[in-house]
Amino acid sequence: MPTTTKRKTPAKKSVKFQKLTPPEQGTPITVVGGKIKFPNDPIIPVIEGDGIGRDIMKATRRVVDAAVHKAFGGKKRIEWFDVYAGENANEYYGEWLPDDTIKAIKHYIVALKGPLTTPVGGGFRSLNVSMRQIMNLYACVRPVKFYHGTPAPVKRPEKMDVIIFRENTEDVYAGIEWKKGTKEARQVIDFMNKRMKTKIRKDSGIGVKPISVKGTQQLVRKAIQYALDHNRPSVTLVHKGNIMKYTEGSFRDWGYAIAAKDFPRKTITEDDVWAKHGGKPPKGKVVIKDRIADSMFQQVLTRPDEYDIIATPNLNGDYLSDACAAQVGGLGMAPGANIGDYVALFEATHGTAPKYADKDMVNPGSLVLSAVMMLEYLGWEKAGELIQKALEKTIMEKIVTYDLARQMEGAQKVGTSTYADRIIYNL
Ligand code: NAP
Asked: In angstroms, rounded to a whole number, what is the distance separating the alpha carbons of residues 29 and 38?
């Protein structure tokens, strides 16, 4: 991850918003000569989110501010900048994802986001998917590891320590689909059946699954670079290429190809580890391996410690990250980020859980840990480590929100804000 700099941050072109007023204090993050420069007082846009977003964002900001203060004693601080998306944007702008919000995130480079509602089977398209596509945030990064004291359904949850790099802009998730019976669906079916000699039933809905060289390689490159920067031993390409040969299968082939082309001296394939090194990876090299998606779901349950960084297409990644998270405490503890070449949007993995909204009940852990990833991205690891230790201590004390309390014996169930208070107390 990039680090902070003491050099003066170069002036950044100002940006004009329709309805937003940026904070008067704080300095924008900039990119100079291909490198991100982080000031000591970055302006960070925040999307509060719908539903429980309102509960967990408040708690998270308090925890982050306290940890930054504790770690850097006033030398560093975050200048939060509230921007709108989802229900609050619809009220303020009359639209769900205003240009102002996209402009702000692109301009200030790092942002924090709560969950947003997406209607199933109709209505508008997912705001989350739109944001990822508009800003080419091609890597969805989801670390999954165990915090001691967390109730877990498996015997050895501490064996799980993976970071999933999920492709974020294509695959069946690209949103290219047509409803059964529409003109578009009929035209595609006619074209396919007449010209391509397929036998698609006429009463089908249609979805398209594009997977490109560019989309695959920018994702796999980022995953390998991460493994190298953080001394992680392997990158596993997870695909369903035995069945979907020219999409998922190609993902695997293009993944191996970019490892060989861009990191020839720093990576080695698992086949070569066995063929040339008796099964023992040479020091300093990242092993590139691949697994078929269905077998991988079994592997992460039975031999999670054999996996480390995982790179995978969009849909596999979505399923796999929740399945892994379930082993170490569930969605309430699962952080994530959407990252492009520079712009990074950190967000909880779970949704808006509307039945719990505004009840000060849910676990803010997922968003708090996403903010820890954000602090690491800023190069403020010290603050991130403080939060992780304080969170772990709070769970060990058995002072937890309802989702963890119901799985623990003798736990003291507290609300979102009291839980945040306790984390701050434990910093
Ligand atoms: P969800 O909001 O993730 O909630 C599903 C269940 O997960 C909850 O009922 C709760 O389980 C548990 N949960 C989620 N967050 C929790 C937290 N912080 N603490 C404790 N438990 C938590 O999934 P959903 O109900 O399927 O989706 C609701 C809306 O969110 C949909 O509109 C969906 O599209 C959207 N969504 C948005 C994002 C995003 O913004 N990135 C991601 C996923 C879904 P229990 O009831 O068992 O306690």
From this structure: 5
Q: Between the CA atoms of 253, 259, 260 and 262, what dihedral angle is there, to the nearest 10 degrees?
A: 130
pTM score of the predicted model: 0.90
Catalytic residue among 173, 226, 377, 419: 173
Is ligand 1 within 6 A of the CB of residue 370? no
Residue range 319-343: mean pLDDT, rounded: 90
Cα distance between residue 358 and residue 188, in whole Å: 45
For ligand 1, whether the C-beta of 361 sits within 6 Å is: no
Q: How far apart are CA 302 and CA 320, in angstroms?
A: 14
Min mean pLDDT across 81-90, 113-122, 168-177, 300-309 is at: 113-122
Rounded distance between C-alpha atoms, residue 387 and residue 422, angstroms: 11
The answer to whether 65 and 77 are in contact (CB under 8 A) is yes
For residue 48 and ligand 1, the question of a CB distance below 6 A is answered with no
pLDDT of residue 117: 86
Taking the centre of ligand 1 as the mean of its atom positions, its distance from the CA of residue 254, in whole angstroms, is 34
Residue-level pLDDT at 118? 76
pLDDT at 105: 97
DSSP secondary structure of 199-263: ---TT--EE-----HHHHHHHHHHHHHHHHHTT--EEEEEE-TTTSIIIIIHHHHHHHHHHHHH-
Token pair 């990252």 is found at 339
% of the chain exceeding 70 in pLDDT: 95
**Active-site annotation holds for 138:** no
**Distance in Å, CA 105 to ligand 1 centroid:** 24
User: pLDDT by residue (tens digit) across 30-49?
Assistant: 999 989 999 999 999 999 99
Q: Which of 14, 77, 16, 9 is nearest to 42 (CA)?
A: 77
